[in-house]
């Protein structure tokens, strides 16, 4: 209902709003069916990707068909309680996500070099 009222008015959406949502703090054992049940209430979903490896467990990407449905989902599901965990629902921002990945990659490379040359963090201070 709220999405319909948004579409009728010539409402400008903030620039960070997009169809792809990044969801954090999910229960590790949540299923894709449960995700579709929770997020499908707010509109047609194109795709859901749930993190499965050690670094991405508890996170997911939800892609909506329509940007207004995604906005409605963020408005209603941020802070929603699932299995005693409060969801963090954000708009996916490629620039921020790639910076985090680059930082992690640099840290791993630094650790490898420190191991290779026998340098510890204490030696650097």
TrEMBL record:
The lineage of its organism: Eukaryota, Viridiplantae, Streptophyta, Embryophyta, Tracheophyta. This is RRM domain-containing protein. Keywords: mRNA processing, mRNA splicing, Nucleus, RNA-binding. The keyword Nucleus applies. Its main location: nucleus. Pfam families: RRM_1. InterPro entries: Nucleotide-bd_a/b_plait_sf (IPR012677), RBD_domain_sf (IPR035979), RNA_proc/Spliceosome_comp (IPR051847), RRM_dom (IPR000504), SF3B6_RRM (IPR034150). GO terms for molecular function: RNA binding. It is found in: Nucleus. PANTHER family: RNA-BINDING MOTIF PROTEIN, X-LINKED 2. Residues 19-94 form the RRM domain. The keyword Transferase does not apply. It comes from Deinandra increscens subsp. villosa. One of its GO terms (biological process) is mRNA splicing, via spliceosome. GO terms for cellular component: catalytic step 2 spliceosome; precatalytic spliceosome; U2 snRNP.
